[in-house]
C-alpha cells in the first residue's frame, strides 16, 4: 500500500507570534534571591515549530496557551502556579517559588484553555485535559473535542531535583488516519469512529502512561476531505508505544474495524496511518509512516540562527532555502566529507542554497586582480572532484585553494563565496552548525536543478516568497530567483566547483536551470568568463 505523506495537511508547526520583551530583564533563574525565593523558567522547544526560543506558539482561535508549574518536596506537591502566554517574558515562562529546602522538584505542563478563561484561586478552568491531580494528567473529554483539533497539543517537562530551568517537549503523538485515495474521503460526507481505545493518563514527573484505557468517539465531517484525511488525535506516549486495540469506522452504510497493530507511537512525532476504504474487506490494515519534526523538508527556509521552517518567519533572517535533505540527494553525504568542520549533532541534514546570487557575475579566475580581466586559465585541478556525480563541493573548494595560481592569476569566485558572501549579503551562518558557504559540486547543482524545475517546485515557491517579502528589494542587482536566460536569450550557466580536464586546458563545469532536456551541463575552459554563482551550505 503506498504511503501518503500529508506534510502540508498535517502540519505540526503552529502559527507563531513574538512575545514582546519586558522592559525589565527576568531574574537569573540560577541565583536564589536574598529572601530565599528561587526563580524557575521553562521554554517551549525551539525545534518543534521551526522557531527560536524567543517565540511562543500562538493560541488557536478561541484559545490561549497556559503553563502550569508544580513543586514537589519529599514527594508532596507544595506549590502550584499557572500563567497564560501573555505573562511570558523573552519567550519563556518565569515562576518564583519559595522551597523549604534544596531538595525540591519542579515539573511543568502546558496546554490550551479557553481564550476568555479567568482564574479562580490561581487556576484556569481545564478544557481538554484534566489537571486537577497533577502530576497526573488525563483527558477531560472523550468525544468530538479530541478529534481533528490542534488545540489538543500539549507540552511537559520534569526537572531534576533542584534544577531551575529547562525546555519542554511534547509527550504526545499526533496520529492521523488518511485514505490512499483522497477522492474517497471527499465524497464520503461524514465519518463515525467508535470503540477507539486509547490510554488515558500521563504522569508528567515519571513519564508513564496509565494502564487504563478510555474509549473515545467521533461523528462528523472528515478532518481534511480535500487531502484525504479521515481524522486525527493527540495521544499520550510514555512507556506505552502501542494502542490497546482496534477501532471501528463507519462511512455511509458501511462499517469496518481498523487494525492498529502496525502503529508504533513515538512522542513528538506525526504518525500517518494510511488505509484504502474502497477496498476494505473485513478488518482493515494500515500502512504507517511518520514525520520527524527534526528533519527539514525541501523548500524550507533556513535562518541565521540555525532553525528552519516551512512558512516564512518574518521575525528571523533567512539565509537560504533547503533544496536537498538526508531523505533525498543529500543522503549520500556525511560529516566525514567536511574536513575541519564539527557539526553539532554529527549528522548531515540538508543542503541549503543561498538566498541570492553573487554580484557582479564572477569569473572563476582572473588574469589579474582587477575584476573583468580576461585571458586567465585554470592551471591545475589536483584534488578537485570530476564527473557529473560529484557532490563534494566543500572539499572541492578547499582543493582549489590548494592549487595556487601563478601571479598575476587569482581566484575570483572562491573568495567571494567562502570569505565574503556571508557579510556582503546578510547571510551569516550559525556558529558550529554548518559547513559555511561554498560553491556546489556539479552533482549538488543537479539536485538543485531537479528541485527548482520540478512541477509545483517548493524551492521556486520559497524563493518567490522571499521576493514577495522584500528580500533583494532596493538592490537592482539582487538575483533571488535563479537566472535561466541571459540578456541575449541564451541559457545561463552557473559555476560548480567540479573540474573538467579538457583537451586544451583544465576547465570548470557549469549548469543551467532552464527546464529543457540535454542542456544542463557544460564546461568553461579556464574559468575565464563571468558566470552566475549561487553558494550553498551543508547543515
Characterize the structure shown.
By secondary structure, the chain is mainly beta. The protein has 2 domains: 16-291, no CATH class; 301-538, no CATH class. The protein is 9% helix and 31% strand. It has 6 helices and 30 strands. The strands form 9 sheets. Strands 22-21-23-24-30 form a 5-stranded antiparallel sheet. A 4-stranded antiparallel sheet has the order 5-4-7-10, with no helix packed on it. A 4-stranded mixed sheet has the order 16-12-19-20. The two termini are 33 Å apart.
The chain-level structural class is: mainly beta
Number of domains: 2
Strand content: 25-35%
Biggest pleated sheet: 5 strands, antiparallel
Q: How many strands appear in the DSSP assignment?
A: 30
C-alpha Rg (nearest Å): 28 Å
Number of helices: 6
Question: What spatial form do the alpha-carbon principal axes imply?
Answer: globular
What integer is the average pLDDT?
A: 87
Q: Percent of residues in helical segments?
A: under 10%
Strands of the largest sheet, in order across it? 22-21-23-24-30
Low-pLDDT residue intervals, each spanning 5 or more residues: 1-30, 47-55
**Straight-line N-to-C gap:** 33 Å
Amino acid at each position: 500500500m503506498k504511503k501518503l505523506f500529508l506534510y502540508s495537511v498535517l502540519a505540526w508547526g503552529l502559527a507563531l507570534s513574538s512575545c514582546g520583551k519586558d522592559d525589565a530583564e527576568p531574574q537569573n533563574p540560577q541565583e536564589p534571591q536574598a529572601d530565599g525565593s528561587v526563580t524557575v523558567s521553562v521554554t517551549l522547544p525551539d525545534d518543534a515549530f521551526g522557531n527560536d526560543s524567543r517565540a511562543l506558539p500562538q493560541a488557536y482561535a478561541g484559545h490561549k496557551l497556559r503553563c502550569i508549574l508544580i513543586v514537589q518536596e519529599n514527594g508532596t506537591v507544595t506549590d502550584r502556579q499557572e500563567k497564560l502566554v501573555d505573562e511570558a517574558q523573552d519567550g519563556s515562562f518565569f515562576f518564583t517559588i519559595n522551597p523549604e529546602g534544596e531538595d525540591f522538584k519542579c515539573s511543568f505542563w502546558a496546554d490550551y484553555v479557553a481564550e476568555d478563561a479567568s482564574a479562580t484561586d490561581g487556576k484556569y478552568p481545564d478544557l481538554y485535559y484534566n489537571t486537577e491531580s497533577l502530576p497526573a494528567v488525563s483527558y477531560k473529554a472523550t468525544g468530538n473535542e479530541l478529534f481533528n483539533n490542534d488545540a489538543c497539543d500539549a507540552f511537559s517537562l520534569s526537572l531534576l531535583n533542584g534544577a531551575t530551568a529547562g525546555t519542554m517537549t511534547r509527550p504526545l503523538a499526533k496520529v492521523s488516519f488518511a485514505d490512499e485515495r483522497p477522492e474517497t474521503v471527499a465524497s464520503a460526507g461524514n465519518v463515525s469512529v467508535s470503540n477507539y481505545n486509547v490510554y488515558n493518563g500521563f504522569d508528567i514527573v515519571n513519564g508513564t502512561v496509565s494502564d487504563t484505557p478510555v474509549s473515545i468517539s467521533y461523528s462528523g465531517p472528515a478532518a481534511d476531505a480535500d487531502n484525504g484525511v479521515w481524522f486525527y488525535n493527540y495521544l499520550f506516549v510514555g512507556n506505552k508505544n502501542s494502542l490497546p486495540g482496534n477501532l471501528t469506522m463507519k462511512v455511509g452504510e458501511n462499517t469496518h474495524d481498523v487494525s492498529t497493530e502496525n502503529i508504533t507511537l513515538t512522542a513528538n512525532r506525526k504518525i500517518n496511518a494510511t488505509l484504502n476504504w474502497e477496498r476494505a474487506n473485513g478488518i482493515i490494515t494500515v500502512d504507517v509512516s511518520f514525520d520527524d519534526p527534526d528533519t527539514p523538508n525541501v523548500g524550507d527556509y533556513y535562518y541565521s540562527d540555525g532553525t528552519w521552517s516551512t512558512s516564512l518567519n518574518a521575525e528571523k533572517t533567512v539565509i537560504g532555502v533547503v533544496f536537498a535533505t538526508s531523505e533525498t540527494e543529500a543522503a549520500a553525504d556525511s560529516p566525514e566529507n567536511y574536513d575541519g568542520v564539527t557539526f553539532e549533532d554529527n549528522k548531515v541534514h540538508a543542503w541549503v542554497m543561498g538566498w541570492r546570487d553573487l554580484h557582479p557575475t564572477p569569473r572563476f579566475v582572473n588574469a589579474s586582480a582587477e575584476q573583468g580581466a580576461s585571458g586567465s586559465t585554470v592551471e591545475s585541478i589536483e584534488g578537485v572532484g570530476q564527473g557529473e556525480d560529484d557532490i563534494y563541493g566543500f572539499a572541492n573548494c578547499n582543493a582549489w585553494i590548494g592549487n595556487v595560481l601563478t601571479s598575476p592569476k587569482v581566484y575570483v569566485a572562491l573568495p567571494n563565496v567562502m570569505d565574503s558572501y556571508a557579510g556582503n549579503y546578510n547571510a551569516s551562518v550559525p556558529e558550529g552548525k554548518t559547513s559555511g558557504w561554498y560553491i556546489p559540486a556539479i552533482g549538488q547543482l543537479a539536485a538543485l536543478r531537479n528541485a527548482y524545475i520540478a512541477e509545483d517546485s517548493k524551492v521556486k515557491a520559497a524563493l518567490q516568497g522571499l521576493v514577495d517579502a522584500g528580500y533583494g528589494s532596493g538592490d537592482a542587482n539582487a538575483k533571488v530567483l535563479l537566472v535561466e536566460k541571459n540578456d541575449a536569450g541564451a541559457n545561463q550557466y552557473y559555476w560548480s566547483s567540479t573540474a573538467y580536464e579538457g583537451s586544451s586546458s583544465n576547465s570548470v563545469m557549469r549548469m543551467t536551470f532552464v527546464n529543457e532536456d540535454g542542456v544542463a551541463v557544460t564546461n568553461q575552459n579556464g574559468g575565464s568568463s563571468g558566470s552566475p554563482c549561487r553558494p550553498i551550505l551543508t547543515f
